[in-house]
Each structure stands twice: as C-alpha cells, then as structure tokens.
Amino acid sequence: MEREAGVALMRRLLQVVEDQRPEMADRFMQVPLECYQSEDLARREREIFETQPLALIAASEIADPHDYVVRSAVDRSILLTRDADGVAHAFLNYCRHRGAEPAAGCGNRRLFRCPYHGWNYDTKGRLTGLPLRDRYEGLDLSDFSLVELPSEERHGLIWVVLRPDSKIDVAAHLGDFDADLASLGCDRMSYYNALPAEPLATNWKSVVEGLLESLHVPFVHTGTFDQNPQAAGVDLAIYDSFGPHVRYSLPMFGRDDVASIRATAEESWDPARALASVWWISPGLLIAEELYGLIYADLTPGSTVSSAVFRYGWLSPTRTAPKGQPSPEEMAARAAQAVGQDQPVWEGCGRGLTHGAHGYALIGRNEKGVQLFHEAIARETGYSGLGYR
Ligand code: FES
Ligand SMILES: [Fe+2]
Fold it and tell me: N or C, where is the chain less crowded by C-beta within 10 Å?
C-alpha cells in the first residue's frame, strides 16, 4: 500500500487500539437462511462468477514458456498456459473433436494430446495435428483451436473471465484497490500451494464470512496464529470498501505502544510494520498480508448451492526464510493447517445453514467486513432480503 494511505489507516487504528473497540457497523445484520439455500440466488451468484475477472492462478505458477496448469472454476476445466513468446493464455480445456479434456495437472509441455483420439494442441491453443490426417482432408485445422477466454496478467496473478465473448479490464474491476495490489509486489513472488482446489460442503458465502472476521481465531486456530497480545483486541480492525470489494486492516501493535507511536512524528511511522491488511476482491479472491508474504486464496461456488471450491496458498517474495522467520514451505504448511482447522467448522455451518430452523444468521456490529460483503453481493444479485436490527 502507498505510504500516505498506510499512514491514514494507522491514524484510525491508533484510535481503535486506544479505545479497544473496532470500527463497528451501525446495526446487527440478519441474513435469512434462504440466502444460503436458494437455487435462484445461487444461479444469479454464478452469473457474477462467470462474468467478472477471477484470479485463477499466480503468474509464477506458469513462470516459463510452455508451463501450464489446469484448474477447474465454476464447473469448467480451464487450461492456463504460457506460450513460446511468454504470453499467458486461458482456454476452455475441451477438445474440439468431441469435447474430452486434452490437458490435466500441471507441468511443462509444448503439446497437449487429447486422451480420447489423440488430437494435439500447442500452448497457443492451436490444433497442430491429428492422427489419420488424410481422413480429414479439406478440414482447416485453424478453425479448430481451443476456445480462448479473455485473460490478463496483472499484479502477479492471471485473471480470467469464464465467458469467451467477454472483455476483461482488471484495473477497472479493482478500482481504488488496484494501487493497493500493485504495491504488494505479487509479481515478484512465488506461489506455495497449501491446499489444492478442494470441495467444501457449505455455501461459498459462509466461507467468505470466515475469511472476513478474526473473531474465530482464538477458538479455531489455537496455537497456529500468533495472537495480538492484547487478547481483548481480537476483533480490533478498520474497514473500507470499494465497489463490491472489502479491505480490512488490523493493528500489529498493542495498547501499550499507542503513546510512543503518537509521540513519534508521522514522517517516521512505518505502516508496513504497524498494520496488516486483508483484501476481499469480489467475487472470489482473498489476499492477506502475513509476515513477509501473502496468503492467496480463491473461492468459487461448487456444483450445488451448498458446496464451494476453495484453493489456498502462500505467496513468498523469497525462496529462503528471512532471519528468524519460518520458511515459505513452513508458511504454506501453516496455511494448510489453518484451513484444516476451519474446514470442519465451515461444514458444520453448511449443515446449520441448510437444515437450521432459526430463520437467519446474525452478523454482529463488530463483523463489519462480513456485513459489507453481504451488502455488496446482494447489490449485485438484486437480493432484497437482508434485515437489520
Ligand atoms: S475428443 Fe479429443 S480427440 Fe476425440
Ligand atoms: Fe480461519
């Protein structure tokens, strides 16, 4: 984040830490259980995931020419490649013959041979050859490339829109947060996977809720995440939103530090050390500052209303640990452990939100990030059922 913006956040956080109260929402929010159950709403949400840019992989996952990764997103198989000229592409991973999936897994290869009848595609998606070629005389192979999706490499991530006839403009999508993401230096970081794309048995929105508050940390992540020593301060945070995106920032200092920070001239403040921020980039991306790198996670709705697909990893600016810090591999392992702790609770929520008879989920005034998220997604789907008290 740019320094001036960081200093402004620090001023707000000093107040929050001094008062030992987070920036709060004005009211409690009631999210009707239908919000997690409705097929109609799920269809409208899916539409959002199909039409907005999704950061499907870190650019470093396909660092070299002919590197590739296959990912699934909103039930589709997507082939991401870097071609001989270093340009990244995203294709629907479906053979133009009869639809089998030519590529699988990840690695480095110049050709993808469809497992069904052996049609070959290159890293630009072109059909370069097929067996029994003489039987296909008169067929122009250039008419049978893999279908390419709009994609853009920006801030060290490969962004994709899942509908081929769409446009992509990631800077416009990120708006005010474009500068924040630029300043993080993701384009110089390497991805360490913590959790491959895993199905979770709960509605995707209930996972987002768990990513946008830290109230659960002392209960669910005992021993994994260092806690702010001012234990009462577990919910201390400030919140900002831009369009559908939410940022929340947490103090990395305690009440005992407030006086000395205030006694120091603002020119000498170091916001990069004094606060950590988490960005929820709608519809499905989480970027969070953690020690010397970033948590990078993405989330899409699963094939049913009560399932989600979640991938979680760690982006590191260095291959070796800075002095006294865990290595990138250890950070990824810690991230994996954390998701392993969240998962059973989230899936419990999945059952509770599907079978519960309690009418609505209550979102506290100190869960402002969760409230901002629900308001943003309701705006986008035109859902009008959120209640307040
Ligand atoms: S479906 Fe791919 S070669 Fe037949
Ligand atoms: Fe968690």
Answer: C
Kindly tell me if the per-residue pLDDT of 126 is higher than 80. Answer: yes
pLDDT at 229: 46
Selected residue with higher pLDDT from 232 and 66 = 66
State whether 318 and 365 are in the same domain.
yes
CA-proximal residue: ligand 1, atom 3 (nearest): 117
What is the longest distance spanned by two Cα atoms in the chain? 82
CA 142 to ligand 1 center in whole angstroms: 16
Question: Ligand 1 pocket: which of 92, 93, 95, 141 to mutate (most atoms <8 Å of CB)?
Answer: 95
Instruction: Say yes or no: CB of residue 98 within 6 Å of ligand 1.
Output: yes
Within this chain, do residues 290 and 260 fall inside the same structural domain, yes or no?
A: yes
Residues 96 and 240 in one domain: no
Atom of ligand 1 nearest to the CA of 130: 3
Out of 168, 199, 226, a domain closes at 168
> Based on C-alpha coordinates, what's the Rg of the chain?
23
State which of 114, 120, 132 you would mutate to test the pocket of ligand 1, scoring each by most atoms of that ligand within 8 A of its C-beta: 114
Which residues constitute the domain of residue 48? 3-52+171-388
What is the Å distance from ligand 1's center to 90 Cα? 19
Is the same domain home to 40 and 81? no
Q: Quote the number of domains for the chain.
A: 2
Residue where one domain finishes, among candidates 122, 153, 168? 168
Q: Domain check: are 79 and 225 in the same one?
A: no
Q: Are 151 and 160 in contact (CB under 8 A)?
A: yes
Those residues whose C-beta lies under 8 Å from the C-beta of residue 263, and which sit 6 or more positions away, are none
279 CA to centre of ligand 2 in angstroms: 15
Q: Do 78 and 38 fall into the same domain?
A: no
Angle at 122 between CA 121 and CA 124, to 5 degrees: 115
Residue with CA at minimum distance from ligand 1 atom 1:
98
**Average pLDDT estimate for 21-36:** 97
Q: What is the mean pLDDT of residues 249-271?
A: 95
Q: How far apart are CA 370 and CA 362, in angstroms?
A: 11
